[in-house]
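Q: Could you predict the 3D structure of Trafficking protein particle complex subunit?
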Amino acid sequence: ASSAKRNGEQCYARAPKISAELFTLTYGSIVTQLLADYDTVDEVNTQLDQMGYNIGVRLIDEFLAQANITKCSSLKQTAEMIAKVGFKMFLGITANVGKWSADENEFSLILDENPLTEFVDLPENYSGLLYSNMLCGVIRGALEMTQMKVTCSFISDALRPGDDTTEIRVYFKEYLSEAIPINDE
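A: Sure. Here are the predicted structure tokens for Trafficking protein particle complex subunit:
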């Protein structure tokens, strides 16, 4: 875990930076536009997840190139890489990994801070909005590109009354076999 954290710090130091406020406000604008474009909060949640998935599918290449890591040997190692390297590299924060299931196929990523939610107060009529749901999609898309099928969901969100932290639950489903393109020799 300490080498993953060190690797995350090194990747973060090398990565180009943008203003945290600009990033947060841009994300907020995306969510606001989706709320205007779709009829229900559930549709917005689905769109945020799908947008995140599309980002994750592309982001994994940058992650693997910059992080200079070898293939993870276990789900635990993968979880640490996401929490300590991925979150640090792209969001400037680290997450804590915990709450493993007995079969070690489920874990939680606990964020003490979430840069996507700076300056955000959710009105009561949007209490079902998973404001940061794009993060679940990013994790899902990135891991799928590394041949791991997972699902993700929010267990708690610091934007909701009564929740102090943001917790993302990751459920490992299966390893995917690499698809060989048709007519590829």
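Q: Anything worth pointing out?
A: The domain at 3-175 is CATH 3.30.1380.20 (Muramoyl-pentapeptide Carboxypeptidase; domain 2).
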